[in-house]
Automatic annotation (TrEMBL), chains A, B:
This is ROK family transcriptional regulator. Pfam families: MarR_2 (PF12802), ROK (PF00480). It comes from Leucobacter albus. Signal peptide: none annotated. Belongs to the ROK (NagC/XylR) family. InterPro entries: ATPase_NBD, HTH_MarR-typ, ROK, WH-like_DNA-bd_sf, WH_DNA-bd_sf.
Length: 396, 396
DNA sequence: TTTATTTAGTTCATTAGCTTTACTAACCAT
DNA sequence: ATGGTTAGTAAAGCTAATGAACTAAATAAA
């Protein structure tokens, strides 16, 4: 029934993953200053999420003492990040509270969206999410061809400068959502669409604009926007259907960058086994072949009005097939689709959902939600702004 | 070329994700005590991965001052977690260093592996990874049928008690790797194989054994074992081929639990589109149909020696098809396979790799490594021990 | 009208923890 | 011996959070 053996120790000690030792160098010590930083951010975050509050409210919400909160708030006020709003009209006994809030209209963020192949877009957005100015720059040259490489980079710099100068508010930072692979240092490792390779965009923009700059992949910032301003859960993927197809992934409330900063590259994966299970890589069998805006548009034109449903259904089906293993693997709660509503909404999304339920077991999909984004046109701009909020204020 | 508009603010403020406000309740304030806890863990972690060191070495490695390190080390020594090893023979001028190290042979962990359908396994393992005792309990009743439900639970408790009592060292904690879905409170939400549903296993074991207990899914602890003691990167998935097929995922060095604590359920996902793209869910088309040990064994018997390669190749192919979207999506650096070596090693792994390279774009797979685990039979036991180390010492 | 109660926010002394500076201990080399 | 080097400790100081006591300003009750 039961079998017990006692051995002399010393046979098979384990070895510790050598790469972990290296990581340790990164693990930082903590100081009292870190404690303060943490609590400061906690206060900011509380205000950010829960609107105007009294110091006492903040103390209750954060579990910090009134004394500590008063000190932190005073500091934040002196930095201009928080402002007093006057007294709350008293409701019940006790001294009336003085309300404080993030100075939402006192700072702005410059956000850029480089995801479109024809038009670079940008905006000045304040901390309340209000747009104060917009600017666009056509990516086309005199011959009507999209500019790339250094010329495109110059266009981006110009756009950033224009918006920086258009802002009447002090600018907290510059956030950029760009297609391509962006590493943790803000270097665009590769962005075929823009003709960039190993372009240190963050450094360039920081130098040229004087603004604290953050660069991230467009699908990632889109996911962050959805997470910050949508009604998402903590585990979801946003699939962006545009010139290409890419995804941004949030797990446990954290953005997933991938080992090579190339997460979300779902568009280039083969879908289905139409050509046999061991068929070689074939561009006609990758997800983008069915799902990108250019190919979808072409297919819809070719099919005519009668074939429209069929084309959209096929696209949704393929998306479902591609996502099924991801859903099973990650136990996602939600898939958010972003793309032209007339293409994505309805049939396409429905078909994807149906295929997902057909290809994964109920456990994996019975709480799954699939829906389209409610953030509209400004998804990327908002995401770029959210990235700056996260980096500069620890708020998100 | 460029088009700038300045709007009055106030048009479209963003709304903050309402679920975030709720999460805030979890976000905790920091106190000076947290700082100390952090640094204490940092010292432990440093000793854990870098072997015996002098106090001065630790100070250099952690960036803490010698004074702080001396204080923390003194405390850890008084708790019995760290011990002085005597002087290092001097090499060069200066006072010779006194070496200290984790008291690796002074504490033990009781680890249980419930993943096998016939045999519950357990061991007493010290902090160096040496096995001090082993015990097993057959899951079969008098009729030779695997016990489930409460009877299985009793068997687990007995096994834990046996090992606890067999340990001559003080026991730091009890770690359990079990099949099924386990939530953050150590409740087994569902484990069909063991006939458990909503079983508060952690609570039960804590009460019955008096040991600090941690329960996690078997594939997750396997991944953690590989991450702790293998030579993995920070972004990988471990695919466990056993009675079923499940996976554990580590991204950025963190374990991914999934929104419903059910990550890694890759075995129940349909693979390929043999029956058409919109075929209904079919157990004959899910990954486990080709890849689990029982089905593989059966297929190999049916095929005979001549068909062996073909069967293994097909299984590897299916695994590759299922993993391709996951690889593209997560940009994993590595896939680790765990299962009977005679089945998994070689043809199966090779086929999976080849399919992966055929179904994902080079960017996604050109640095991808696929290999089998080097942790052997004790993978789950080691993982269960690693979980306890992580929970109790913050070390991993 | 006066008094008690309640809530907001501040002042002050205390505690916890890390750091700097200064020191002793112990070793090597000249 | 003496100077230089490294390990480790002691004492004082700085930062940050805390608890107790206090003031301020309102409502409710007597």
């Amino acid at each position: 029934m039961k079998h017990v053996t006692t051995r002399s120790a010393g046979d098979t000690a384990w070895a510790i993953n050598p790469r972990r030792a290296r990581d340790l160098r990164v693990a930082a010590k903590a100081t009292p200053g870190d404690t303060k930083q943490h609590n400061r951010t906690l206060v900011l975050q509380t205000l950010y999420v829960s609107g105007p509050l009294s110091r006492a409210d903040i103390a209750r919400a954060t579990q910090l003492t009134k004394v500590t909160v008063s000190g932190l708030v005073a500091e934040l006020i002196s930095e201009g990040l928080v402002e007093e709003l006057g007294q709350r009209e008293s409701q019940g006994p006790g001294k009336p509270a003085t309300l404080v809030d993030l100075a939402r209209s006192a700072h702005a963020i410059v956000a850029l969206d480089l995801s479109d192949d024809k038009l670079l877009r940008g905006a000045v957005i304040d901390l309340a999410g209000r747009t104060h100015a917009r600017a666009e720059a056509a990516r086309l040259d005199a011959q009507g061809i999209a500019v790339t490489g250094d010329a495109a980079c110059e266009l981006v710099i110009e756009l950033a400068l224009t918006l920086r100068d258009a802002s009447e508010l002090p600018v907290l930072g510059l956030g950029v959502g760009t297609p391509g692979v962006v590493d943790a240092d803000g270097v665009v490792r590769v962005a075929p669409n823009l003709g960039w390779e190993a372009l240190p965009l963050r450094q360039i923009l920081t130098e040229r604009t004087g603004l604290a700059t953050t660069i991230e992949n467009d699908a990632n910032v889109a996911a962050l926007a959805e997470y910050s301003f949508g009604d998402t859960s903590e585990d979801f993927a946003l699939v962006r259907i545009g010139f290409g197809v890419g995804a941004g992934i949030i797990l446990g409330g954290r953005s997933i960058p991938g080992s090579q900063f190339a997460s979300g590259e779902i568009g280039q994966v083969m879908v289905g086994t139409d050509l046999g299970i061991d068929a070689p890589y074939n561009r006609e069998q990758v997800l983008e072949h069915w799902l990108s805006v250019p190919t979808l548009t072409r297919a819809l034109e070719a099919a005519g009005p009668a074939g429209r449903e069929q084309v959209l259904r096929e696209a949704g089906n393929r998306l479902g097939v591609a996502l099924a293993p991801v859903i099973g693997m990650l136990n996602l709660a939600e898939i958010v689709l972003s793309g032209p509503p007339e293409l994505v909404d309805g049939t396409l999304a429905d078909a994807a959902y149906e295929i997902l339920t057909r290809r994964t077991m109920p456990n994996s999909h019975d709480t799954l939600v699939i829906r389209t984004t409610g953030q509209g046109e400004d998804l990327i701009l908002r995401g770029a702004a959210a990235v700056v909020l996260r980096e500069r204020l620890g708020v998100s």
